[in-house]
Design a protein that fits this description.
The chain is of the alpha/beta class. It contains 11 helices and 21 strands. It has 2 domains: about 5-60 and about 360-390, Urease, subunit C, domain 1 (Roll); about 65-355, TIM Barrel, CATH 3.20.20.140. Strands 1, 2, 3, 4, 5, 19, 20 and 21 form an 8-stranded mixed β-sheet that branches. An 8-stranded parallel β-sheet has the order 6-9-10-11-12-13-14-15. The protein has a 3-stranded antiparallel β-sheet with strand order 16-17-18, with no helix packed on it. Helix 8 links the parallel strand 14 (about 250-255) and strand 15. Helix 8 (about 265-275) packs across helix 9 (about 325-335). The radius of gyration is 21 Å and the shape is globular. Bound molecules: zinc ion (2 copies). One zinc ion binds near residues 140, 150, 205, 226 and 230. It holds the Pfam family Amidohydro_1. One of its GO terms (molecular function) is metal ion binding. Belongs to the metallo-dependent hydrolases superfamily. NagA family.
Protein backbone atom coordinates (compact mmCIF):
# COMPACT_ATOMS: atom_id res chain seq x y z
CA UNK A 1 0.00 0.00 0.00
CA UNK A 2 1.41 3.41 -0.95
CA UNK A 3 0.71 6.23 1.46
CA UNK A 4 1.33 9.95 1.27
CA UNK A 5 0.59 12.73 3.70
CA UNK A 6 0.53 16.32 2.59
CA UNK A 7 0.59 18.56 5.64
CA UNK A 8 0.99 22.18 6.65
CA UNK A 9 -1.17 23.58 3.82
CA UNK A 10 -4.34 25.58 3.31
CA UNK A 11 -6.74 22.91 2.13
CA UNK A 12 -9.74 24.10 0.10
CA UNK A 13 -12.81 21.90 0.52
CA UNK A 14 -16.53 22.09 -0.15
CA UNK A 15 -16.95 23.04 3.51
CA UNK A 16 -14.43 25.86 3.47
CA UNK A 17 -10.72 26.40 3.93
CA UNK A 18 -8.80 24.30 6.45
CA UNK A 19 -5.73 26.18 7.66
CA UNK A 20 -2.81 24.03 8.75
CA UNK A 21 -4.58 21.19 7.04
CA UNK A 22 -3.45 17.76 5.98
CA UNK A 23 -4.50 15.20 3.38
CA UNK A 24 -3.82 11.52 3.89
CA UNK A 25 -3.60 9.63 0.59
CA UNK A 26 -3.76 5.83 0.27
CA UNK A 27 -3.27 4.04 -3.05
CA UNK A 28 -4.21 7.07 -5.12
CA UNK A 29 -7.33 7.96 -3.13
CA UNK A 30 -7.93 10.59 -0.50
CA UNK A 31 -8.37 8.73 2.78
CA UNK A 32 -8.66 11.56 5.26
CA UNK A 33 -8.73 15.35 5.30
CA UNK A 34 -8.25 17.24 8.53
CA UNK A 35 -6.53 19.92 10.52
CA UNK A 36 -3.41 19.87 12.62
CA UNK A 37 -0.39 17.71 12.96
CA UNK A 38 -1.42 14.37 11.55
CA UNK A 39 2.21 13.25 11.37
CA UNK A 40 2.41 13.19 15.17
CA UNK A 41 -0.38 10.63 15.25
CA UNK A 42 1.77 8.11 13.40
CA UNK A 43 4.26 5.92 15.21
CA UNK A 44 7.90 5.74 14.08
CA UNK A 45 7.31 2.59 12.04
CA UNK A 46 4.35 4.05 10.20
CA UNK A 47 6.29 7.21 9.41
CA UNK A 48 8.93 5.20 7.58
CA UNK A 49 6.37 3.89 5.14
CA UNK A 50 4.66 7.14 4.42
CA UNK A 51 5.80 9.78 1.94
CA UNK A 52 5.60 13.17 3.60
CA UNK A 53 5.02 16.39 1.68
CA UNK A 54 5.36 19.63 3.61
CA UNK A 55 3.09 22.13 1.80
CA UNK A 56 4.84 24.95 3.71
CA UNK A 57 1.72 27.00 4.18
CA UNK A 58 0.81 27.03 0.47
CA UNK A 59 -2.65 26.38 -1.00
CA UNK A 60 -3.85 22.87 -1.83
CA UNK A 61 -6.63 22.74 -4.44
CA UNK A 62 -8.32 19.94 -6.33
CA UNK A 63 -6.53 19.27 -9.63
CA UNK A 64 -7.86 21.49 -12.42
CA UNK A 65 -10.31 20.11 -14.96
CA UNK A 66 -10.10 21.87 -18.34
CA UNK A 67 -13.24 21.16 -20.36
CA UNK A 68 -12.12 23.12 -23.44
CA UNK A 69 -8.56 22.65 -24.63
CA UNK A 70 -7.35 21.89 -28.14
CA UNK A 71 -3.70 21.53 -27.36
CA UNK A 72 -0.50 23.05 -26.07
CA UNK A 73 3.22 22.32 -25.76
CA UNK A 74 3.45 21.86 -29.54
CA UNK A 75 0.56 19.38 -29.76
CA UNK A 76 -3.04 19.49 -30.94
CA UNK A 77 -5.83 16.92 -30.53
CA UNK A 78 -6.57 17.30 -34.26
CA UNK A 79 -3.10 15.96 -35.13
CA UNK A 80 -4.52 12.51 -34.34
CA UNK A 81 -1.18 11.49 -32.88
CA UNK A 82 -0.93 9.07 -29.96
CA UNK A 83 2.46 10.43 -28.92
CA UNK A 84 1.16 13.98 -29.28
CA UNK A 85 -1.70 13.37 -26.85
CA UNK A 86 0.68 11.70 -24.44
CA UNK A 87 3.06 14.66 -24.53
CA UNK A 88 0.20 17.14 -24.14
CA UNK A 89 -1.28 15.20 -21.21
CA UNK A 90 2.04 14.91 -19.47
CA UNK A 91 2.79 18.60 -19.93
CA UNK A 92 -0.60 19.69 -18.61
CA UNK A 93 0.33 18.49 -15.12
CA UNK A 94 2.76 21.44 -14.99
CA UNK A 95 -0.17 23.88 -14.93
CA UNK A 96 -2.09 21.86 -12.33
CA UNK A 97 -4.50 20.30 -14.82
CA UNK A 98 -5.16 16.70 -13.85
CA UNK A 99 -8.13 15.98 -16.17
CA UNK A 100 -9.37 17.44 -19.42
CA UNK A 101 -11.67 17.09 -22.38
CA UNK A 102 -9.61 16.82 -25.55
CA UNK A 103 -11.27 19.33 -27.85
CA UNK A 104 -11.69 18.92 -31.60
CA UNK A 105 -12.19 21.58 -34.27
CA UNK A 106 -14.43 22.20 -37.27
CA UNK A 107 -12.60 20.18 -39.91
CA UNK A 108 -13.47 17.61 -42.55
CA UNK A 109 -15.45 14.63 -41.24
CA UNK A 110 -12.48 12.50 -42.17
CA UNK A 111 -10.08 14.54 -40.02
CA UNK A 112 -12.51 14.73 -37.11
CA UNK A 113 -12.99 10.96 -37.31
CA UNK A 114 -9.23 10.40 -37.22
CA UNK A 115 -8.86 12.68 -34.21
CA UNK A 116 -11.74 11.00 -32.35
CA UNK A 117 -10.49 7.47 -32.89
CA UNK A 118 -6.99 8.48 -31.83
CA UNK A 119 -8.34 10.00 -28.59
CA UNK A 120 -10.45 6.88 -27.97
CA UNK A 121 -7.45 4.63 -28.56
CA UNK A 122 -5.12 6.76 -26.42
CA UNK A 123 -7.54 7.05 -23.52
CA UNK A 124 -7.74 3.28 -23.16
CA UNK A 125 -3.99 3.09 -22.65
CA UNK A 126 -3.30 6.37 -20.87
CA UNK A 127 -1.29 6.62 -17.68
CA UNK A 128 -3.39 7.88 -14.81
CA UNK A 129 -0.52 8.96 -12.58
CA UNK A 130 2.10 10.45 -14.93
CA UNK A 131 -0.26 12.39 -17.17
CA UNK A 132 -3.36 14.52 -16.94
CA UNK A 133 -6.25 12.22 -17.71
CA UNK A 134 -8.45 12.51 -20.78
CA UNK A 135 -11.93 12.11 -19.32
CA UNK A 136 -13.76 12.80 -22.55
CA UNK A 137 -14.04 14.88 -25.67
CA UNK A 138 -15.43 18.32 -26.36
CA UNK A 139 -16.64 18.39 -29.96
CA UNK A 140 -16.34 22.05 -31.02
CA UNK A 141 -18.05 22.11 -34.37
CA UNK A 142 -18.65 21.25 -37.12
CA UNK A 143 -22.28 22.02 -36.17
CA UNK A 144 -21.78 25.75 -35.78
CA UNK A 145 -22.82 28.89 -37.65
CA UNK A 146 -20.82 29.89 -40.70
CA UNK A 147 -21.46 33.49 -39.58
CA UNK A 148 -19.47 33.11 -36.36
CA UNK A 149 -16.69 30.72 -37.14
CA UNK A 150 -14.00 32.57 -35.19
CA UNK A 151 -10.88 30.57 -35.97
CA UNK A 152 -12.85 27.46 -36.99
CA UNK A 153 -12.64 26.63 -40.68
CA UNK A 154 -15.77 27.95 -42.49
CA UNK A 155 -15.42 25.44 -45.31
CA UNK A 156 -16.19 22.51 -43.01
CA UNK A 157 -19.28 23.82 -41.21
CA UNK A 158 -22.12 21.23 -41.35
CA UNK A 159 -25.73 21.06 -40.29
CA UNK A 160 -26.36 18.82 -37.29
CA UNK A 161 -28.37 15.61 -37.17
CA UNK A 162 -28.75 12.89 -34.57
CA UNK A 163 -27.40 10.36 -37.00
CA UNK A 164 -24.19 12.32 -37.67
CA UNK A 165 -23.59 12.82 -33.96
CA UNK A 166 -24.29 9.18 -33.13
CA UNK A 167 -21.77 8.13 -35.78
CA UNK A 168 -19.14 10.43 -34.32
CA UNK A 169 -19.89 9.15 -30.82
CA UNK A 170 -19.43 5.60 -31.98
CA UNK A 171 -16.01 6.47 -33.42
CA UNK A 172 -15.16 8.20 -30.15
CA UNK A 173 -16.10 5.11 -28.18
CA UNK A 174 -18.65 7.09 -26.15
CA UNK A 175 -16.15 9.76 -25.05
CA UNK A 176 -17.91 12.83 -26.48
CA UNK A 177 -19.31 14.70 -23.49
CA UNK A 178 -19.83 18.28 -24.73
CA UNK A 179 -20.92 19.48 -28.16
CA UNK A 180 -20.55 23.16 -29.07
CA UNK A 181 -23.35 24.01 -31.49
CA UNK A 182 -25.32 26.92 -32.95
CA UNK A 183 -28.98 26.49 -31.91
CA UNK A 184 -30.40 28.65 -34.72
CA UNK A 185 -29.26 26.53 -37.65
CA UNK A 186 -31.47 24.03 -39.46
CA UNK A 187 -31.84 20.76 -37.57
CA UNK A 188 -30.25 22.03 -34.35
CA UNK A 189 -33.32 22.02 -32.09
CA UNK A 190 -34.50 18.60 -33.30
CA UNK A 191 -31.04 17.16 -32.68
CA UNK A 192 -30.88 18.84 -29.29
CA UNK A 193 -34.24 17.40 -28.25
CA UNK A 194 -33.25 13.98 -29.41
CA UNK A 195 -29.83 13.82 -27.75
CA UNK A 196 -30.02 16.20 -24.78
CA UNK A 197 -29.82 13.35 -22.26
CA UNK A 198 -26.71 11.87 -23.87
CA UNK A 199 -24.57 14.98 -24.35
CA UNK A 200 -24.09 18.43 -22.87
CA UNK A 201 -25.04 20.86 -25.62
CA UNK A 202 -23.07 24.08 -25.35
CA UNK A 203 -24.18 27.18 -27.23
CA UNK A 204 -21.33 28.78 -29.17
CA UNK A 205 -20.12 30.00 -32.55
CA UNK A 206 -23.63 31.29 -33.05
CA UNK A 207 -25.68 34.29 -34.07
CA UNK A 208 -28.68 33.17 -31.98
CA UNK A 209 -30.82 35.98 -30.62
CA UNK A 210 -31.73 36.32 -26.95
CA UNK A 211 -35.02 34.49 -27.62
CA UNK A 212 -33.39 31.75 -29.69
CA UNK A 213 -30.84 31.18 -26.95
CA UNK A 214 -33.54 30.85 -24.32
CA UNK A 215 -35.50 28.54 -26.60
CA UNK A 216 -32.43 26.32 -26.85
CA UNK A 217 -32.24 26.27 -23.05
CA UNK A 218 -35.89 25.23 -22.86
CA UNK A 219 -35.02 22.42 -25.26
CA UNK A 220 -32.11 21.19 -23.16
CA UNK A 221 -28.98 23.27 -23.89
CA UNK A 222 -26.93 23.64 -20.70
CA UNK A 223 -23.68 25.47 -21.40
CA UNK A 224 -22.27 28.51 -23.14
CA UNK A 225 -19.00 27.97 -25.00
CA UNK A 226 -16.35 30.65 -24.30
CA UNK A 227 -18.76 33.41 -23.27
CA UNK A 228 -18.08 36.71 -25.13
CA UNK A 229 -16.32 35.01 -28.04
CA UNK A 230 -17.89 34.03 -31.38
CA UNK A 231 -21.51 34.79 -30.44
CA UNK A 232 -24.11 37.51 -30.83
CA UNK A 233 -23.19 40.34 -28.46
CA UNK A 234 -25.25 42.21 -25.88
CA UNK A 235 -27.25 45.12 -27.28
CA UNK A 236 -29.73 46.86 -25.07
CA UNK A 237 -32.63 46.11 -27.44
CA UNK A 238 -31.38 42.66 -28.38
CA UNK A 239 -29.47 41.15 -25.44
CA UNK A 240 -28.26 38.21 -27.56
CA UNK A 241 -26.42 35.17 -26.28
CA UNK A 242 -24.55 37.17 -23.65
CA UNK A 243 -27.76 38.55 -22.13
CA UNK A 244 -29.31 35.09 -22.02
CA UNK A 245 -26.14 33.64 -20.54
CA UNK A 246 -26.06 36.25 -17.78
CA UNK A 247 -29.70 35.78 -16.82
CA UNK A 248 -30.50 32.10 -17.26
CA UNK A 249 -29.88 30.05 -14.13
CA UNK A 250 -29.97 26.92 -16.27
CA UNK A 251 -26.94 28.03 -18.25
CA UNK A 252 -23.39 27.48 -17.05
CA UNK A 253 -20.75 29.46 -18.87
CA UNK A 254 -17.20 28.78 -19.96
CA UNK A 255 -14.81 31.71 -19.97
CA UNK A 256 -11.26 32.16 -21.26
CA UNK A 257 -9.78 34.32 -18.52
CA UNK A 258 -6.59 35.47 -20.24
CA UNK A 259 -7.36 39.18 -20.36
CA UNK A 260 -7.30 39.04 -24.18
CA UNK A 261 -10.50 37.15 -25.06
CA UNK A 262 -12.56 39.30 -22.71
CA UNK A 263 -11.88 42.53 -20.83
CA UNK A 264 -11.32 41.96 -17.10
CA UNK A 265 -14.47 44.00 -16.37
CA UNK A 266 -16.52 41.77 -18.68
CA UNK A 267 -15.19 38.75 -16.82
CA UNK A 268 -16.11 40.38 -13.53
CA UNK A 269 -19.65 41.12 -14.76
CA UNK A 270 -20.05 37.48 -15.78
CA UNK A 271 -18.76 36.30 -12.44
CA UNK A 272 -21.07 38.59 -10.50
CA UNK A 273 -24.05 37.39 -12.50
CA UNK A 274 -23.21 33.69 -12.71
CA UNK A 275 -21.54 33.24 -9.31
CA UNK A 276 -19.07 30.50 -8.48
CA UNK A 277 -21.43 27.62 -9.24
CA UNK A 278 -22.26 28.42 -12.87
CA UNK A 279 -18.86 29.42 -14.17
CA UNK A 280 -16.14 27.28 -15.77
CA UNK A 281 -12.62 28.55 -16.21
CA UNK A 282 -11.28 27.14 -19.49
CA UNK A 283 -8.10 27.73 -21.46
CA UNK A 284 -9.28 26.99 -25.04
CA UNK A 285 -5.54 26.64 -25.57
CA UNK A 286 -3.94 25.76 -28.87
CA UNK A 287 -0.58 24.18 -29.60
CA UNK A 288 1.52 27.31 -29.00
CA UNK A 289 0.86 27.25 -25.27
CA UNK A 290 4.15 26.70 -23.48
CA UNK A 291 6.05 27.38 -26.72
CA UNK A 292 7.97 30.41 -28.06
CA UNK A 293 6.26 33.12 -30.14
CA UNK A 294 6.01 32.29 -33.84
CA UNK A 295 3.79 30.72 -36.52
CA UNK A 296 1.63 27.72 -35.67
CA UNK A 297 -1.11 25.66 -37.30
CA UNK A 298 -4.64 25.57 -35.87
CA UNK A 299 -7.04 23.28 -37.70
CA UNK A 300 -5.39 23.92 -41.05
CA UNK A 301 -5.06 27.68 -40.62
CA UNK A 302 -1.89 29.64 -39.88
CA UNK A 303 -1.82 31.35 -36.49
CA UNK A 304 0.67 34.01 -35.43
CA UNK A 305 1.54 33.94 -31.74
CA UNK A 306 2.96 37.12 -30.26
CA UNK A 307 2.76 38.84 -26.86
CA UNK A 308 0.37 36.35 -25.26
CA UNK A 309 -2.05 36.45 -28.20
CA UNK A 310 -2.74 33.91 -30.95
CA UNK A 311 -4.35 35.37 -34.08
CA UNK A 312 -5.11 34.46 -37.67
CA UNK A 313 -3.54 36.72 -40.33
CA UNK A 314 -6.77 38.82 -40.41
CA UNK A 315 -6.51 39.45 -36.65
CA UNK A 316 -9.18 36.97 -35.54
CA UNK A 317 -8.32 35.49 -32.14
CA UNK A 318 -7.37 31.86 -32.63
CA UNK A 319 -7.49 30.06 -29.32
CA UNK A 320 -5.33 31.02 -26.40
CA UNK A 321 -2.00 30.16 -24.89
CA UNK A 322 -3.44 30.37 -21.39
CA UNK A 323 -2.68 27.91 -18.61
CA UNK A 324 -5.29 26.98 -15.99
CA UNK A 325 -3.20 28.29 -13.10
CA UNK A 326 -2.65 31.63 -14.87
CA UNK A 327 -6.40 31.80 -15.59
CA UNK A 328 -7.17 31.34 -11.90
CA UNK A 329 -4.60 33.98 -11.00
CA UNK A 330 -6.23 36.38 -13.47
CA UNK A 331 -9.70 35.64 -12.14
CA UNK A 332 -8.57 36.46 -8.61
CA UNK A 333 -7.33 39.80 -9.95
CA UNK A 334 -10.38 40.59 -12.10
CA UNK A 335 -13.01 39.85 -9.44
CA UNK A 336 -13.36 40.70 -5.78
CA UNK A 337 -13.60 36.98 -4.99
CA UNK A 338 -11.17 35.01 -2.84
CA UNK A 339 -9.67 31.62 -3.55
CA UNK A 340 -12.04 30.17 -0.97
CA UNK A 341 -14.98 30.69 -3.33
CA UNK A 342 -13.13 30.70 -6.65
CA UNK A 343 -11.41 27.31 -6.55
CA UNK A 344 -14.53 25.46 -7.65
CA UNK A 345 -14.67 27.19 -11.08
CA UNK A 346 -11.54 25.21 -11.97
CA UNK A 347 -12.69 21.78 -10.83
CA UNK A 348 -15.90 21.01 -8.94
CA UNK A 349 -18.34 22.67 -11.35
CA UNK A 350 -16.81 20.73 -14.21
CA UNK A 351 -16.91 17.44 -12.30
CA UNK A 352 -20.59 17.97 -11.48
CA UNK A 353 -21.43 18.81 -15.10
CA UNK A 354 -19.64 15.70 -16.33
CA UNK A 355 -21.19 13.58 -13.59
CA UNK A 356 -17.84 12.46 -12.22
CA UNK A 357 -18.04 14.31 -8.91
CA UNK A 358 -18.13 11.02 -7.02
CA UNK A 359 -14.43 10.61 -7.86
CA UNK A 360 -13.12 14.04 -8.91
CA UNK A 361 -13.56 17.78 -8.46
CA UNK A 362 -12.99 18.34 -4.75
CA UNK A 363 -10.79 17.39 -1.84
CA UNK A 364 -12.91 14.83 -0.07
CA UNK A 365 -12.57 11.32 1.39
CA UNK A 366 -12.68 8.51 -1.20
CA UNK A 367 -12.13 10.79 -4.20
CA UNK A 368 -9.09 10.44 -6.47
CA UNK A 369 -5.98 12.11 -5.08
CA UNK A 370 -5.73 14.64 -7.95
CA UNK A 371 -4.37 17.79 -6.31
CA UNK A 372 -2.34 20.89 -6.99
CA UNK A 373 -0.23 22.89 -4.54
CA UNK A 374 0.07 26.56 -5.51
CA UNK A 375 1.58 29.68 -3.96
CA UNK A 376 -0.17 33.05 -3.56
CA UNK A 377 0.57 33.91 -7.21
CA UNK A 378 -1.01 30.56 -8.20
CA UNK A 379 2.31 29.27 -9.51
CA UNK A 380 2.18 25.48 -9.53
CA UNK A 381 4.64 24.05 -7.04
CA UNK A 382 3.53 20.43 -7.05
CA UNK A 383 0.83 18.48 -8.84
CA UNK A 384 -0.35 15.20 -7.36
CA UNK A 385 -1.93 12.87 -9.92
CA UNK A 386 -3.59 9.78 -8.54
CA UNK A 387 -1.40 10.07 -5.45
CA UNK A 388 1.86 10.53 -7.40
CA UNK A 389 3.90 13.67 -6.87
CA UNK A 390 5.23 15.87 -9.71
CA UNK A 391 7.33 18.86 -8.64
CA UNK A 392 7.50 21.98 -10.81
CA UNK A 393 8.83 24.76 -8.62
CA UNK A 394 11.05 24.73 -5.57
CA UNK A 395 9.27 25.52 -2.32
ZN1 LIG B 1 -14.36 28.40 -30.27
ZN1 LIG C 1 -12.03 26.09 -28.84
Amino acid sequence: MSQTIIYNGNVYTEHGKIEQGYIHICDGKIKKVGQGDFVQQLDVNERQHVEMIDAKGHHILPGFIDIHIHGGYGEDAMDASFKGLQHLSQSLLSEGTTSFLATTMTQSTDNITKALSNIANYSQQQSTDDCAEIIGIHLEGPFISEHKVGAQHPQFVQRPSSEKIRNLQQTANGLIKIITFAPEVEGALDTLNDLKDEFIFSIGHTIATFDQTNEAVTNGAKHITHLYNAASPFLHREPGVFGAAWLSEQLNTELIVDGVHAHPAAVNIAYRLKGNKHFYLITDAMRAKGMPDGDYDLGGQNVIVKDNEARLADGTLAGSILTMNQGLHNLLNYTEAHLEELWRVTSLNQAIALNIDDSKGSIKENKDADLVIVNDQIDVITTIKNGKKHNYKPY
